[in-house]
Design brief:
Number of helices: 13
Mean pLDDT: 97
Largest sheet: 7 strands, mixed
Bound molecules: flavin-adenine dinucleotide
Helix content: 25-40%
Strand content: 25-35%
Radius of gyration: 24 Å
């Protein structure tokens, strides 16, 4: 009988594959089991990567249509080649998933294609087209991710009524697209299809978009999306989608608290009310692990209630983000190897890759108020930033929140071009428990958008110089 593995990881997404790489680096004997037939999980196959490929291409398409002429660039007749746009997206996905396979080999990780099931303590059964085999292992890491949350009464066919997965591959631009849910995924994919020509209507149960993000940021973002042409029905629920007509979907909506129903017509409906942990058929009962609505419960540093069974990523609590899964995977491998792996959940950024981008880290104003924590605020508009003005990208602002007494940065909230890249500066500062003054006194290159971060930091102490 061959030596048991040190660790078998079930699920090959950002949580699983990063855990495998780090465990391999630390000299552990590792296997990763993935049923999809391709590594990379939701993120690479049907999430972050394909959505960003379409966001990038559609943003350029819209810029070519609306902005290039003003920059002195004549494009001639602008034409959308949707099959090519989808093909370049698929090529990005293919290249990156193959890259992960290479990284498995490089770090001596065995990659098994098949469905993994915990068969008992230290045993993972892998079922593939070739049959079943059982792996013996000292540790098991559950990294099975998440799936689309269905909306009761609305059947997803991935043709006309689609989830995010279907919305990444529509064969033609819908005339009318209705989004159910105004979260990150819906607003990103809604932006893609609006830029390519769809009329987009957003129906959201809550009285605001982007739940969980800073209220001022969300309000500003909604105004911007509305200016771009999206129509919003807030505090409104969808009660059904009638797909009986071959041409037109009929979406029934009514006020969230009840009231008169209305019908919206659509060619395509995107159901994007969130994602839920995925642990189907995983055999959790064989090792006595229980779940709650946020998936497998982690007790202490990714440990579950079962000895030597660990859990990371979307299938446990915390934000459902690829970089959170990645950090947990890395720290979990380090814990298994006897090191002190750690994730700082206070510093997990969130980005919405629309145009303008939206980015945030740390506490929102609403959270600080609810905690009764005294804070100061510095805010700087891109309108007053020289690079933003030069680039004709003056929408948005940077807002930095810091402790009223110690000046420690508690959170930052930004909307504007490239803020998804700029938020990393704040993350680093927060990891070092920096004060807003540390940023204010750090030399930033000119002319760059990052100067807006510095000016906002100056604003915390009331000495913003350039507005
Ligand atoms: C449209 C969209 C856009 C997104 N954009 C972003 C973004 O821009 N930034 C960001 O941070 N996050 C984004 N996300 C979220 C991100 O994709 C997830 O947070 C991330 O993929 C979670 O990683 P994970 O490893 O926990 O799980 P997953 O990536 O879901 O991977 C889990 C893997 O486990 C496999 N699996 C499940 N059960 C078994 C089993 N029993 N045996 C074998 N294999 C199994 C699944 O097939 C899957 O491949 C997006 C998601 C979507 C849907």
């Amino acid at each position: 009988m061959s030596e048991p593995y040190d660790v078998v990881i079930i699920g090959g997404g950002p949580g699983g594959y990063n855990c495998a790489i780090r465990a391999g680096q630390l000299g552990l004997k590792v296997a990763i089991v993935e049923k999809r037939g391709r590594l990379g999980g939701t993120c690479l196959n049907v999430g972050c990567i394909p959505s960003k490929a379409l966001l990038h291409a559609s943003e350029l398409y819209e810029a070519a249509d609306k902005e290039f002429a003003g920059l002195g660039i004549k494009t001639g007749g602008l034409e959308l080649d949707l099959p090519q746009m989808l093909k370049q997206k698929d090529e990005a996905v293919d290249g990156l998933t193959k890259g992960i396979e290479f990284l498995m080999k490089k770090n001596k990780v065995d990659y098994l294609v098949g469905k993994g099931r915990i068969a008992g303590a230290g045993k993972v059964e892998v079922e593939s087209e070739d049959g079943k085999q059982t792996l013996d292992t000292k540790h098991i890491v559950i990294a099975t991710g998440s799936e689309v949350t269905p909306l009761p009464g609305v059947e997803i066919d991935e043709k006309r009524v689609v989830s995010s997965t279907g919305a990444l591959s529509l064969e033609k631009v819908p005339g009318k697209l209705v989004l159910i849910g105004a979260g990150v995924i819906g607003l990103e994919l809604g932006s893609v299809w609006r830029r390519l020509g769809a009329e987009v209507t957003v129906v959201e149960y809550l009285d605001r978009i982007l739940p969980g993000m800073d209220g001022e940021l969300a309000k500003n973002a909604q105004r911007t999306f509305a200016k771009q042409g999206m129509e919003f029905h807030l505090s409104t629920k969808v009660t059904g989608v009638d797909a009986s007509d071959a041409d037109t979907l009929k979406v029934t909506i009514e006020p969230a608290e009840g009231g008169e129903a209305k019908t919206l017509e659509a060619d395509t409906v995107l159901v994007c009310i969130g994602r839920r942990p995925y642990t189907e058929g995983l055999g959790l009962e064989n090792v006595g692990i229980e779940t709650d609505k946020r998936g497998v419960i982690a007790n202490d540093h990714f440990r579950t209630s079962a000895e030597n069974v660990w859990v990371i990523g979307d299938c446990t609590s915390g934000p459902m983000l690829a970089h959170k899964a990645e950090d947990e995977g890395t720290a979990c491998a380090e814990r298994i190897a006897g090191k002190a792996g750690h994730v700082n959940y206070g510093v997990i950024p969130g980005v919405v890759y629309t145009a303008p981008e939206i980015a945030a880290v740390g506490k929102t104003e609403e959270e600080l108020k609810a905690e009764g924590r005294k804070y100061k605020k510095g805010k700087f508009p891109f309108q007053a930033n020289s690079r933003a003005r030069t680039n004709h990208q003056t929408e948005g602002f940077v807002k930095i929140l810091a402790d009223a007494e110690t000046d420690e940065i508690l959170g930052a909230h930004m909307i504007g071009a490239n803020v998804g890249e700029m938020i990393a500066e704040i993350c680093l500062a927060m990891e070092f428990q920096a004060a807003s003054e540390d940023i204010a006194r750090t030399c930033h290159p000119h002319p760059t958008l990052t100067e807006a971060v510095r000016q906002a930091a100056m604003g915390v102490e009331g000495w913003t110089m350039q507005a």
